[in-house]
Specification:
The structure is a single chain. By secondary structure, the protein is mainly α. The chain is 57% helix and 1% strand. α3 packs across α4 (98-109), α3 packs antiparallel against α10 (189-208) and α4 runs parallel beside α9 (180-187). The model is unreliable at 1-17 (pLDDT under 50).
Length: 322
């Protein structure tokens, strides 16, 4: 299968988007050069820090304060993406009160993976055309030969982020475009990006009461943490659509990749997700760690989440492969 760029947009999408709809969230159907340059900067700089992390840790060590800050920031942002952007906003696996809705939108924005409405629109389009013509980030885009797959893996992992064609938000996320709270959070993405980058050095500086503490916290808690979370998230698009076990029926090539489960907060149990997209739990088999599902359960027990779509045994068995 080869996905051509000209086929990537469904025929139902209009070629012109009214200005009122474009301004409802950040961005339109075209990604300009300034956006692409900024995107490249926010990918390249944290990635260079991630590459430097091993020699830095070997030469100067990694302090407990930096480790704690990086871990808290990582899993706060990660669960903001998995519980908030993905299972709640994209697939409506549960309902929330207003406070939790806003908190999840902000937490997900701390991952610096784009405004919430843009993220949701892209992911809903991915599910509509998963691993077929129109999928924004299928690793099978260029075909099934080894060279084509390598090129496709690069595209699925991060190449697609620089595509000038953007998913129309008013087509794929009209509910969020109309939501005043989420529209405001989406427009303030620059603020959440700034907060995500500056909060670790602020905490590190105050705890150590030194500029060195602020600098090392920025390195580990901001740069390395952002890069690691980016590449774990993008690996769900690339690796989990190329390899992995497929115990459940789905109309694409999504697979379960166990060694990504902890760092992806349960998202790498990807085969079940594509077999049952609205399920609040992705790791449904014995031993499959899914911290996002556990967090949703705690929200439910606290009364902050309701109408959670938990998979029962019959629902799971109905989706198993023969």
């Amino acid at each position: 299968m080869t996905i051509q760029a000209s086929e990537a947009r469904p025929s139902a999408e209009p070629t012109v988007t009214p200005a009122s709809q474009i301004s409802a969230t950040l961005g339109g159907e075209k990604q300009g050069l300034p956006e692409r340059l900024a995107l490249g900067l926010f990918i390249a700089v944290p990635f260079l820090a991630l590459v430097a992390a091993v020699p830095v840790a070997w030469g100067w060590g990694l302090g407990w304060t930096d480790l704690a800050i990086a871990t808290v920031m990582y899993f706060t942002a990660c669960h903001g993406i998995t519980v908030g952007f993905h299972r709640f906003f994209t697939h409506r696996s549960f309902k929330t009160n207003r406070a939790l809705k806003i908190a999840l939108a902000v937490a997900g924005s701390l991952a610096i993976e784009g405004p919430v409405v843009r993220w949701v629109a892209d992911h809903r389009k991915h599910h509509k055309f998963s691993d077929k013509d129109g999928d924004p980030h299928s690793p099978w885009r260029y075909g099934e030969t080894v060279p084509a797959l390598l090129k496709g893996l690069w595209w699925a992992h991060m190449g697609w982020l620089f595509d000038t064609e953007q998913t129309p938000q008013h087509i794929y996320a009209p509910d969020l475009v109309k939501d005043r709270d989420i529209r405001a959070v989406s427009r303030l993405f620059w603020l959440w990006t700034t907060l995500s980058m500056l909060l670790p050095p602020l905490v590190g500086g105050l705890v150590s009461w030194s500029w060195q503490g602020a600098l090392t916290a920025f390195f580990w808690g901001s740069l390395v943490r952002v890069a690691l979370l980016h590449h774990v998230t993008w690996s769900i698009n690339s690796i989990c659509h190329a390899i992995g076990a497929r115990p459940f029926r789905s109309r694409d090539r999504s697979g379960n990749v166990w060694w990504l489960a902890v760092l992806s907060c349960g998202e790498s149990w990807h085969n079940l997700h594509h077999a049952d997209p609205t399920s609040a739990r992705h790791g449904v088999l014995r031993g499959q760690v899914d911290s996002s599902a556990r967090l949703i359960r705690w929200f439910e027990q606290a009364g902050w989440a309701r109408d959670v779509r938990w998979p029962d045994a019959g629902r799971i068995d109905a989706r198993r492969t023969a």
